[in-house]
Amino acid sequence: MTSVLQEVWNFFQSYILPVLPFVALVLIEVQLMYKRRENEVMFGTDAFNEKIKAFDFTPKEVRTLEKLVRSSKFENKDAVLNSSGLFEAAVSEFYRIRNVFSVRDETLDAIAGLRNKMNFTGSNPLTMVCSTRQFNVGDKVDLEFESGQVFRRVPILERSEKTWSVQIEGLHSLAKAIQGSLVLIRWTRMNDAVYSKKLTVFSATSDKVVFTHSDQLDKEQLRKWVREVVNLPVTAKFPDGRVHSGILYDLSAGGILLGLAEECWPDQQISISFELPSFGVQNVDVKILNNLGHRNPSFPMFNSISAVFTGEYAWTQERVLQYIFEVTRKTKLRKNEVNGVTT
Questions:
Q1: pLDDT by residue (tens digit) across 7-49?
Q2: Among candidate residues 165, 311, 299, 283, the one with its CA nearest the CA of residue 231
Q3: If you average pLDDT over residues 176-184, what whole number do you get?
Q4: pLDDT tens-digit readout, 287-300
Q5: Cross-strand bridge partners of residue 274
Q6: Segment holding 336, helix H or strand E
Q7: How far apart are CA 133 and CA 216, in angstroms?
Q8: Which of 152, 177, 149 is nearest to 166 (CA)?
Q9: Which sign does the torsion angle of CA 287, 289, 291, 295 carry?
Q10: What pLDDT, on the 0 to 100 scale, is given for residue 15?
Q11: Phi-psi bin for 136: left (phi > 0), alpha (psi -120 to 50), beta?
Q12: What residues are paired with 194 via a beta bridge?
């Protein structure tokens, strides 16, 4: 026993003791660095003081904004006022250091107030979205569970700085089973992108699923999906009451290409109905852009007609975008699997 203790002491004297002064100096310097950051005047202070005048911040919100700046790694004090991305990065770092579940409610309320007053939520089309804290109550999301269950257009029920939840009816038998499971979340911001992330279910009840927040969302630009080739039956109803059946050739976020035996003319308004796979029947008004003639050799009797959505088509447009997103994602997965087998 004595020999073992002697060996440990010899090791400590030879290897640990010599570096202790250096470690102590490093720790002291780190502490001094944090002290300087907390107290010294930062670069951009004048710009910061000038910019906050444009917002109706409360004294508590200003003090909280100061804390966010001091907790971040930004050199410029006014950085958090310049973009939602920098603001959310500072918020995430602050919550990481303090533990969001230990932060006082008044501070959480102040951070939420700052985000709203600077219009850094997802409802602002000019705001960069990078955190689920930017989602709004009432926004619709899609959920895809590990079990394969899919819930479409589920409304966000609550959102705080700590957690956010969605409303799903009839979870009585599933609540315990899904707690702790992974769920793919997708939120579409029109004319922008589809934001997605796999999150773990924090808790679940008979009608509510709760998640913690993520500040790293995957983003797929909608402009990548210009058009998706399809082959779907479609019914077209004309203003005079005539109804004709045809084929939907392709879909995009703003319009369609369909085949009809009936002659159509530019600016003509018609209503169409088609079933979008996994999204159900879509009824929408369209305006004819052009009659391209008998272009599709698979349907030689049909005119190829291009048209754009009109009227109240936001619901259909979102579903079309989600459908295209799904097809694109599955195509990528298949290609990756093929490439994996090949290599």
A1: 766 665 666 667 656 555 444 444 434 443 444 546 467 888 8
A2: 299
A3: 90
A4: 999 888 888 888 88
A5: 234, 282
A6: helix 314-342
A7: 11
A8: 152
A9: negative
A10: 62
A11: beta
A12: 188, 220
Report the alpha-carbon distance of residue 15 to residue 196 in Å, rounded. 50
Is residue 150 within 8 Å of residue 144, measured between CB atoms?
yes
Q: Is the pLDDT of residue 306 over 80?
A: yes
Residue type, 140: K
Mean pLDDT of 74-97: 88
Alpha carbons 99 and 65: distance in angstroms, whole number: 17
More confident call, 215 vs 253: 215
- Token digits for 21? 């002064």
Q: What is the DSSP string of 204-219?
A: E-SSEEEEE--S--EE
CA distance 93 to 238: 58
Q: Is 120 exposed, middle or buried (0-12, 13-18, 19+ CB in 10 A)?
A: buried
The total number of residues written for the chain in this structure? 343
- How is residue 27 written in tokens? 């720790």
- Top pLDDT among 191 and 100 is at 100
Report residue 117 as tokens: 């007053």
Contact 307, 267 (CB under 8 A): no
Distance CA 75, CA 188 (A): 34
Residue 70 CB neighbour total at 10 angstroms: 16
DSSP, collapsed to helix, strand or coil, labels residue 196 as: strand
Nearest to 47, CA basis, from 16, 78, 84? 78
> Nearest-CA neighbor of 252 among 303, 185, 195, 328?
328
Pairing assessment for the beta strands 218-221 and 182-189 based on DSSP bridges: unpaired
Supply the pLDDT for residue 29.
42
Span 61-66, average pLDDT: 93
